[in-house]
Amino acid sequence: QVQLVESGGGSVQAGGSLRLSCAASGYTRSMGWFRQGLGKEREGVATIKTDGSTTYVDSVKGRFTISRDNAKNTLYLQMNSLKPEDTAMYYCAAETPTCSGAYCFIWGAVFGNWGQGTQVTVSS
After folding, report:
1. How far is CA 47 from CA 68, 93, 109, 123, in A?
2. Which of 120, 116, 118 is nearest to 4 (CA)?
């Protein structure tokens, strides 16, 4: 299974920016960013297919941009105009053919391969 390693999280004030990266050890199909706030369920933030087509949750449209570099097997999430409600653990995930792992999220595809997460904290 392809390994996913996130980086780029941190603490920032409201209105600031962060860029998350996710390095994959091999080829992946659709990829996505998901987040889980303390005491909340995991939610989808953005996904991107191999052809570059994207999907965003309404709360981040116009502020976040997902992109990928297929040559480098790397996924990115540029986050601008951050708000305190964006505070969460952010996870990178890759599409899998079936849901056979411990956790899956279905959002246009089955996302069953997960990184360890990177924390984003936005202070007001």
Report:
1. 10, 9, 9, 26
2. 116
Checking DSSP bridges between strand 74-79 and strand 64-69, what pairing results, if any? antiparallel
**73 Rama class: left (phi>0) / alpha (psi -120 to 50) / beta:** left
Is 46 strand, coil or helix? strand
Instruction: Show the tokens assigned to 41.
Output: 């369920």
Q: Whole-angstrom Cα distance, residue 28 to residue 25?
A: 9
The pair of three-digit structure tokens given for residue 27, joined into one six-digit string: 């080829």
pLDDT digits (tens, 9 = 90+) for 59-118: 999 999 999 999 999 999 999 999 999 999 999 999 999 887 788 999 999 999 999 999
Alpha-carbon torsion (53, 57, 11, 95), positive or negative: negative
Vertex 115: Cα angle to 112 and 118 (nearest 5): 135
Q: Of 80, 99, 72, whose CA–CA distance to 5 is shortest?
A: 72
